[in-house]
Amino acid sequence: MAEGDRKRTQEVAHRPGSGGELSGRTVLIVDDDPAHVAHVREGLAPRGYLFREAHDGPQALSAIRESRPDLILMDVEMPGLGGVEVCRIIKANSGEDGFGFIPVILMTARQAAGKVEGLELGADDYLVKPFDMLELSARVKSMLRLKVLQDTLVEKNRELDKANKELARRREELLALSRTDALTGLFNRRCFEERLTEEFARSRRYQSPLSLVMLDIDHFKRINDTFGHPFGDQVLKAVAQTARTRLREVDVLARYGGEEFIALLPETNPVDALKVCERVREAIAGLGVEHVGVEGKRQEVRLTASLGVATVPSADLNSAEALLRAADAGLYAAKGAGRNRVRQHVP
Predict the structure, then answer these.
(1) N- or C-end of the chain: fewer Cβ atoms within 10 A?
(2) In terms of Cα–Cα distance, which of 86, 22, 28 is closest to 52?
């Protein structure tokens, strides 16, 4: 065999033998003595393993990167990069992003040379040449079983991690569904009431302003009766989107029920709250939702909304329920005054 051919890493598959569940596993033999490589390969061949060969440290590392063998049989004494140094590199890169777990059996012609060092660096076993082939076969089988168990454990952990991530994702979805109005995508009433309790407590603790807005679409029943409930749903979604875009990220907007919406505006005093309400009211008044009739006739339907707003701290509003009632009273005052307007609670 030419020297160049001998130095190339090569893969040699032998006929299936009595390796059982380990048949077909890949063993990388690393030794600068071709005769010893052949001796080891022939002794293990009846087990049905696949073999790769390398004749020095750099070839061994290349073979590991290319094929990820299941076991490495490696001579300690090799020119240049020796077996102990290669073992150090392999074990330093044993994570899932590196080589993974690969058992290493070190081989040496000297009784004690490097044994302690090799084992301390993570070599999984150690053999002194010349060794009995039955002993080698038994140790190889033991290490391959360890590799199978480790691979199984890694795969099970990967599956468990994937399952846990999927479970967490579904929990997040369920939590979002439990807090969200299905039609508009806004928070639902239950979620809003939780946030109201939290924000009111924070406002009282720090004496910071908190405004609450109640909004109702004017003549919504007439819209449903005239154009049908599917169009009414379109109107609700359009109003929800319009109101949402006129509020800040920190503001909490929810569908409170039917055609009624509610918003919390943290750190917002009465003057600024009134400005926000007027901005939302004007945006809704500028909406034109297109209705398509049964014969394809198109009609733009104009909308308006009435709003009530109240703010704490306020001498006469000492609870979250009182704040809610004050904003609701403002909403009814706006409707009573002719709709499409804002009414603000005055202490």
Answers:
(1) N
(2) 28
